Each structure stands twice: as structure tokens, then as C-alpha cells.
Amino acid sequence: MKLLKNGQSGQALVLALILLALGGLIVVPILDLAGTSLNYHRVVQRNTLETYAADAGVEYALCELGNDPEGYKTEVLQESFIVNDKTVNVTTEYLDNDIYKITSIATTDSNSSTIIESYVHISPYPAFFNNAITSRGDVTIQPGTVVDGDVQYQGTLDNKGTITGDTIQAPVENWPTADELSDFYWVDEVISGSTIDISSGTVENPYLIGPGHTNGNLKIVGNGVAQLMGTLYVQGSVTFKPGTGIKLNSQTIYANVDVTIPPHTEVWGPGCIIAVGDVQFQPHLGTGEEAFILVMSVEGTVQFQPDNDFYGALAGNVEVALQPNCTLNTTEPDDGLDYPLCTTLETLSYEIK
After folding, report:
1. DSSP H or E stretch at residue 13
2. What residue spans define the domains of the chain?
């Protein structure tokens, strides 16, 4: 027993010293690795927040350009704000052919910033709001009709009335498609039934309609007055019966087929009446107002014959006939008009630096 004990003396100490030495060798690299990993994640988090902030600057610029693409052809957008505790500086530059350069810089401090450069192409819709009439085809103006504004057309102009503005025979560029407008106006709420009776509505207390869509044709009936509370999206045709009245309330009637508003009806603006097919527009316009109304056919014809002065614009293949001593007046659209003032916005490049 004594010999065995003496033969093992010091072995544990040697092993302990070896392990201590190895631990000393690997502790420093492990600490360095931990410190490097911590610093890496901090840098990644900082760069990620900067990228998100710079991207928010790009989105802000896109919104501003989309609201006023023509204005920013001559004016430079320069804006600064705080996002994710980062200072974001956004500028735009108009190049040519409806192409804009957006530069958005998100800065954490003097040693760290992220830059996003994006080139976008913005195509404005046709000058619906600059012209009294805009047509991809022919325009017919009946005797006794006065059009106070410009008329642009691609086909022929048969003018038996009076036009106080310019007549422009030129292609209408960037005409919106039915799919584009349908996507813009679609609402998920459902309006059940194929007939809405608005007999209970009055001018002071109108029958409220919308927002919502129908699954087929829609008829508006009853000797009363209705008011839109949002987009009325009709998947078929919408027909107003004589005796009905509608306050557009800056909203839109959009039909996948036709819109028929016959004589002995009444319409109050401002607002939009849009059909993919034909529009028959023959109402009396609500008195005491000069509110802008857009009457538009995307693929068909506008037959236009209200019985008093009209304020707004027409778009489509157009036949215009007003009663004698009535005028189609071009006016500025209301700020709250429910219409996509810009069409396609295409991102050509998006680079993060």
C-alpha cells in the first residue's frame, strides 16, 4: 500500500497544471470571439435599422412624387426626418422621360450611414383635369353646346357648337386600363341585392349608400335622394331610374359594364362616375354648386346631355349635347376627389450602399 501511494504522488497536480495551461491558451481567443460576435451583431443591427430608415425615406419620396409628378420635374424634393433614431435625408432629381432619381441617406453618427439610390419611372394619367373633353376616339359636339375648355381627341372632331379653348388632335398617352382602375376602386364590403330603393331619402337626410360592391347589375329606384359614403363598385351595370337623385360626396360610382343616368334624375358633385363600357349621362345637376364631376368611359362612349350647366371633365369616346344656353365648364378638381391621379410607378433600380 505504501509503494502504490508513493508511485502515484504528483500525477493529479501535473494534470491540473496541464489543464490550467490549456485553459489559459483558449480563454483569450474565446473572449475575442465573443467580443467580435457581439460587435458584429451590433453592426448588423445598426445597418439593418439604417436600411429600414433609408427605405422609409424612399417610400416617402415615392408618395410625394406620385402625388405631384409634374411639379417635381422642376422642383427638387429635400426632406429630413427621424426614423429608428436615425436621421434620414431624402432628395429627388428629375432626369428625363418621366424618370426620377431618389437618394435616401440614413445616418447613425459621423462614422456610420446607409445610402439607398433608386431610379423610378412615373407615368401620369392623361390630362383629364386640364381638358374639358379627352377622347381616344371621336368627339361630336351638337348645335347649341358651349364647351368652356380644351378638347383633346385622336379621331375626328365634329363641332357644331362653340369651343372656347384649344382643340388638340393628338394621341392620349397613358390611358388607364380597366384592371388598373378596378384594382384602385375595389372594396371588400358587399352590398346585397340588385335593387336599392332610396324613396326614404331627402336632400337634407339622404339615403346612405356604400362603401361596397355588388355581385351583378344594380338598379337605383324610388323618388328620393341618396348619398355615397364610399366607393360604389358595381360588377355589372348600374341604372338610375327617373325620379332618383344622388349626392356623390367626393366618392365614385365605378361599373364594370355601363352606367345609365337618364333624364329626370339629379346629381350633385363633386365626385366621379366611371364605367368600363358606356356612360349615358342626362341628369339635372344639383343647383347652387360648381363642384367638379369626372364622367369617364374607359373603353366605350360617353353620351352626355345634362339639362343645365356642368362643371368638370369628360373622358372617353364622347358625344356632347347640352340644352341651349348651357355650358360644359372646366374647373379645378376638388382636393378630396377619389381618383388615382398617377398611374404606373415602375422601380428601375434599387441599390443599397
Report:
1. helix 11-67
2. 11-124, 131-329
